[in-house]
Amino acid sequence: MTSPALGTDLAAMRRLNGQAVLTTLWDEGGPLTASRLAASTELSRTTVEAVLAELLDADLIRSEQLRPRGAGRPARGYRLAADRGVSVGIDIGPHGIAGIAGDLRGTVAAPHRRIEQDLSGGADAVTAITEIVESLLEESTASTRELAALTVGIPGIVDADGHPVKTTVVPDWLAVDIDAHLRRMFPGATIAFDNDTKLAAFAEIENGTIGADETAVLLRIGNRISAASVVEGRVARGAHGAAGEIGALQRVAWPQAQQRLSARAEDGLELLFRRHGGSDEAIAEFAAGIADGLGALVLAIDPHAVVVSSSIPEASDRLADALRSELAGRALFVPELRTSSLGAAAPCLGALAVSSVAARERLFSQEY
User: Fold this and answer.
1) The CATH number of 210-340 is which of 3.30.420.40, 1.10.1530.10, 3.50.50.60, 3.40.50.300?
2) 230, 350 in Cβ contact below 8 A?
C-alpha cells in the first residue's frame, strides 16, 4: 500500500518533470524529439515519454512526424500547443487605440493596427478596448473564451498589482473603472494594466535595443513626451509604479517644449523632421527644452544609453544628435544615444510580451 506522503512526493515529482518538459518546449519553440528533450531536461527517455503522453492527453502539446534525415523510420517531434490560446497587447490613450494579438508564446497572429479617435471619456475607452480585442480575436480565428491574457498600456501610473491608480492625461478612466469592466467582458482571461512607456521600455529590452544587463533611459516623443528607466535590464517601477515620471515636475516643462515645436511646424511635425537645414533651429530649441528633464534622469541612474523613440523615424535620428550635444553640458558621463526601430508599436509589443508571460504562468499551472 502506498503511503499518502509517498503519493504526494510522486505527484510533486511528476509535476516537476512536466514543468521541465514544458519549459524546454516553450523556450525552444520548434519541434523536439523525445531524445532531445531527455538530453535538455536531464530526464530519462522513459520519463520523458511518459510526460509527453500526459501532455498530449491534456492538449498542451502537439505531435508531428519530422522529415527523415536518412534511412529508417522518421522521428516524432513535439511542440508546445501555443495556438490553444491568444495573448493580446493594447496601447490606448486620449487620441486613439492600437492593438496586436499573438499565440501563447507571443508570436504575432494579428498584426499591429491603430485607430485614431477621441477616447478621453472612460466609457468610450471601454468600448474601444472591447471592440479592438474582439476584432483581433476574429482575425486570429479565435473566440473570446480562447483569450488567455490581455495587457493594456495606458498613460498613467499603474501599481504593482496591475491596477491603474493615477493619471492626469485621462482622469475619467479611473472614475469608470475600466479594469472591472474588462474583467466582466473577458472573465476567462488574465487582465492587467501597465504604463505605456514602461511597456515600450520592456519591448526595447526584448528587441535588444537595450541590453539584458544594461541601465538605460527610454525617451518617447509622440502626442506627449514621456520617459522610463531601465536598471540592469529591468524596467524600474518604484514604490508606487511612478519611477521615471520626470515629466510630472512642472519646472521640467516638457509640454511647453512640445507646444513650441508644434507651433513652428506649420506643415506638421513629420515634414519638419524630414526637412533638412531650415528645421535645424527648431529641433535644437526643442532638444534644449527637454534636456534638463532628461539630464536629471541621466544623473539619477547613470545609464549606458538613452533610447529615443518616435513614430517618425527621422525624428528619432535627428533628436538623438541634438540631445547628445545638450547632455554634454548636463551629465557627468554622456550616455550612448540610440534610436528605436519599434516606433509607435513599442507599447503594444511590450504589452503582448507581458501577456505572453501571463499566459505561460497559466499554462504551467494547469493540472493534467
Assistant:
1) 3.30.420.40
2) no
Name the residue ranges covered by the structural domains of the chain.
Answer: 4-80, 84-199+347-365, 210-340
Which segments of the chain have a pLDDT < 70?
Answer: 1-8, 69-72, 266-268, 270, 272, 274-278, 368
What are the residues facing 226 on neighbouring strands? Answer: 220
Q: What is the mean pLDDT of the chain?
A: 91
Q: Per the structure block, which three cell numbers stand in for 294? A: 532628461
Q: State pLDDT tens for residues 90-125.
A: 999 999 999 999 999 999 988 888 999 999 999 999
Is the CATH number 1.10.10.10 carried by domain 4-80?
yes
Asked if 180 and 162 count as a contact pair (C-beta separation under 8 A), the reply is: no
d(CA 359, CA 105): 8
Would you call 122 helix, strand, or coil by DSSP? helix
Instruction: Answer whether 229's CB lies under 8 Å from 301's CB.
Output: yes
Question: Residue 5 has what pLDDT?
Answer: 56
Please enumerate in sequence order all residues whose Cβ is within 8 A of that of 124, keeping only pairs 6 or more positions apart, or say none: 117, 118
Pairing of strands 157-158, 164-166: antiparallel
d(CA 160, CA 112): 27
Q: Render pLDDT for 186-211 as a digit per residue (tens, 0 to 9).
A: 999 999 999 999 999 999 999 999 99
Pairing mode, if any, of strands 76-80 and 61-65? antiparallel
SS3 72: coil
